[in-house]
Amino acid sequence: MNTRRSFLKSAGLLSAGVLVSPSLLAATPKYIGLQLYTVRDAMQQDPAGTLAKIAKMGYNSVEGATYTGTQKFYGMEPAAFAKVLKQNGLIMPSSHYVLGEAMNNGQPTQGTILHGWDKAVEDAAQVGVKYMVCAYLFDTERGDLAHYKKIADDLNKAGERCKKAGIQLCYHNHDFEFQAQDGKMPYDTLLGMTDKNLVKMELDLYWATKAGQDPVALFKKHPGRFPLWHVKDMDKTAERNFTEVGNGSIDFKRIFAQAKLAGMQYFFVEQDKTPGLPFDSIQQSITYIKRTLV
Known about the structure:
The protein is 39% helix and 14% strand. By secondary structure, it is an alpha/beta fold. It has one domain (4-293): Divalent-metal-dependent TIM barrel enzymes (TIM Barrel, Alpha-Beta Barrel), CATH 3.20.20. The strands form two sheets. It has an eight-stranded parallel barrel with strand order 1-2-3-4-5-6-7-10, surrounded by four helices. The chain has a two-stranded antiparallel sheet with strand order 8-9. Helix 4 (78-87) packs parallel to helix 5 (117-127) and helix 7 (145-164) packs parallel to helix 8 (186-193).
């Protein structure tokens, strides 16, 4: 199975559901989402069949993980992909993209924030995407705090372009953004140097927790800034690996209780690695979510 790094290198971007619970979220349940990176191999082999299988499990929204200016949406033009989604009763309110500083064989990757962004925004709008997410920074794109300030500027500019199309730009974290440099975390730089209306956050609950951060504390410090979540659990071993939602150590009930404070609109189940077939894992996750969280 592909590693995330190799997958993003070849696809030009990266990965990470969303639903609202009557008891925990004080709203009518509507969407339970899946980040398609979780089933990346199946999506490469049979995207239409995979989407149908996901829908039958009860997921009704997905988050894209492979758009580039040449690959489109899993090999399909926007209109064709939108048709497949509709046929399966799915929406794709969010999709992942990469910054585009890192070169691919010495050439810029199109459909990224820095290269071919106008076309990416146009294609996203055709599919009905509401949130375009900067999914990952490659090692060579991270750098010092000064470079993170430049990235913040790039995100603001990309967010302006998204706004013109009625789309919201977001940034998805891993754990490296919480590694302090000169006493300050890059994540704080990104939050502080981006316009809160142009750039919001997709909080990956696993990576934030693994980095020692409390998602609820982040919500309280930056209310309304987190419209998207990645719901993934952390196992109870010393390695703290990925596991099915409800099978690990993250207190999702406590986090979901603060969904309104966070500004959460959609969440997406994601499990980067699974012990067996990913379909078995996502079935286990959605069963727990329906029984316990929504």
